[in-house]
Amino acid sequence: MNSDLAKLRAKIDGVDARLVKLLNERTKLVLGIGKLKHATGEEIYAPDREEAVFQRVTAQNTGPLTEESLRAIYREVMSSALALEKPLVIAYFGPAGTFTHMASVKKFGASLRYEPLPNIPDVFLEVSKGRADYGVVPIENSTEGAVTHTYDMFVESELKVCAQILLPIRHNLLSAGSRDQITRLASMWQVFAQCRQWLQTNMPQAELVEVSSSTRAAEMAKHDPTIGALASTLAAEMYGLTIHDPNIQDSNANVTRFLVIGRKYPDATGNDKTSIMFAAADKVGALHDSLAAFKHHKINLTKIESRPSKKKAWEYYFFVDFLGHCEDPKVKKALVELAKHTMFVKILGSYPNVNA
């Protein structure tokens, strides 16, 4: 047995040596592309090319690695190359340890610099001023609905949506002491709402303490064993807390969608989503006529959200997501037709329609 084990380990060592050589060879090629992009002023990060790489490598996968594992490996391979091409800064709605932080790392990998910011407008500001290369902000939760602050920022901002991130939300009961010491529970109101049934069943007597973030709740729990935090596994790791009850959210279908914002949107991949906003004309049937443009050109709408314009009472902006890229011929025709029934149309971005 020891002889067989030694032989297998020797083979693994040989594979590792080839992997290291190939990874460095790949990185040198990526750096060469980075120099060409820098010379022409192109963005270093290309979501369309990134998705093409993911699709290609997963199509070649014959196992036993899962597609999810292979994507995670290549995410870090590409993240390390990006960090060498340019020290990218990713701003996100913080603080550290939140689900937005987790979504950011899921998208860009562990090798880049992450900048937590106290609110969504600050994320937009840092990217628009060039102090951050990209920003990550929440846009909607599958159980609690839209994040209105993000929608409102797109009204004035010229930044573009260049990618989306779908993150399953898993809340956990954390504390520094034993579970029976907990008399108060701290978290954001959204987290309490998403764990309402669990709270009523498992800790109906606990006092609920609303705080600014789940990470803040974890920080409080670190210093007081009577406080239980409802927070992420990342927050538990950051603050050295014990996970007493995992996955306490009421719905396992609880998913938050995040947007990556930048200065331009990527080229078409063949499987894309587009986000736009428009203001319907002030006349009977204007909204119906506006949306009919998409039906006429057989374009699938995936979401519509309205927000007050804040400029005139009872005037609204409409935010629409649909399948397709804004450079697709039928999408162009639909947008031209849409413009005939609206006061203005603004393309917020086209980006790969991926769920991973």
Q: What would your notes on this structure say?
A:
The chain is α/β, with parallel strands linked by helices and 356 residues long. The chain is built from twelve helices and 15 strands. The strands form three sheets. Strands 1, 2, 3, 4, 5 and 11 form a six-stranded mixed β-sheet that branches. Strands 8-7-9-6-10 form a five-stranded mixed β-sheet. A four-stranded antiparallel β-sheet has the order 13-14-12-15, sandwiched between helices. Helix 1 crosses helix 3, helix 2 packs antiparallel against helix 3 (67-85) and helix 11 (286-296) runs antiparallel to helix 12 (329-339). The radius of gyration is 23 Å and the shape is globular. The model has no long low-confidence stretch (mean pLDDT 91).
Order of helices and strands: HHHEHEHEEHEEEHHEHEHEEEHEEHE
Largest sheet: 6 strands, mixed
Helix content: 40-55%
- Strand percentage, roughly? 25-35%
Query: Helical segment tally?
Result: 12
Q: Mean pLDDT, rounded to whole units?
A: 91
**Strand elements, count:** 15
**SSE-based structural type:** alpha/beta
Low-confidence stretches: none
Give the radius of gyration: 23 Å
Shape: globular
Spatial separation of the terminal alpha carbons: 41 Å
